[in-house]
Design brief:
259 residues; mainly alpha; Annexin V, domain 1; 2 domains; three-stranded antiparallel sheet; 56% helix
């Protein structure tokens, strides 16, 4: 398997990272950056519905990664989160995935991981075991969560000035546009090659015959013919009125000239 980054390749050599954190499937091709975990395709699709403040998804095969994003994965990893949860007697089947990633304990862990990446002390106490898996209240995304610190589509809440936009935010936009450009380029080439291999002679003739038959059926339809005749009759009457009006104008102009 070819990874988009050497660091990701090294991280995927670790046994714990080769299995999806959520379902333990062997094939991991995605990562939740702010949770620092590796996921399979199915679980990553579920994570996209949680919102980027709960789980910011990146492909370990196709996406370009910033150094800041890679630090989240190096400081995190499937093993670290599992060991962290041992203190809270977490069992995967006890709550839904959506509630789990919206729980107070995961909110705290994301803050803890972010502080490690930024080299800051976390000024926040962990929730108690009794309240660990309670759902957190709605978060003000602009004030409490700075997504740009792990490269998602967010920005620092300072001013509207472009100078205040985090560099990771700009990089993420550029990377996304490059990925879209590459995708459509490959799609175009693939379509062109497929068409070149097709025998279009018979297919085009078949298409032409279908169009001809459809047109013939339309023209032979009595209701449609009645509408067409009505339309053209109205058009002819309007043209006659316009012509008569023009002739009258010419006659008036001639009378004026004669006077």
């Amino acid at each position: 398997m070819r990874f988009s980054n050497e660091t990701l390749g090294e991280l995927m050599k670790l046994k714990e990272n080769r299995r999806c954190f959520d379902c333990n499937t062997k094939s991991c091709q995605w990562a939740s950056v702010n949770n620092g975990i590796f996921l399979c395709t199915n679980c990553s699709g579920m994570h996209r519905g949680f919102g980027v403040d709960k789980s910011y998804i990146r492909s370990i095969l196709w996406d370009n990664w910033t150094e800041n994003q890679l630090e989240f994965m190096k400081k995190g990893g499937n093993k670290n989160l599992k060991e962290f949860l041992l203190n809270y007697s977490y069992e995967q089947n006890q709550i839904s995935k959506e509630k789990f990633y919206n729980s107070k304990i995961l909110h705290y862990y994301r803050k803890l991981l972010k502080s490690k990446v930024n080299g800051n002390e976390l000024d926040l106490l962990p929730p108690s075991k009794e309240e660990a898996f309670e759902e957190i209240e709605s978060i003000n995304l602009n004030k409490e969560n700075n997504f740009s610190s792990y490269g998602s589509l967010g920005q620092n809440n300072l001013n509207n000035n472009d100078d205040n936009i985090n560099i990771d935010y700009k990089d993420s936009i550029q990377e996304g546009m490059s990925s879209v450009k590459d995708f459509f380029g490959k799609a175009y080439e693939g379509t062109k090659n497929a068409i070149n291999k097709m025998d279009l002679g018979n297919k085009l003739n078949s298409a032409k015959n279908v169009i001809y038959d459809a047109g013939k059926s339309i023209l032979e339809n009595k209701q449609i013919n009645s509408f067409i005749n009505f339309f053209w009759k109205g058009k002819e009457e309007n043209e006659n009125k316009e012509n008569n009006g023009t002739e009258n104008e010419k006659g008036k102009n001639n009378d004026i000239d004669d006077n």
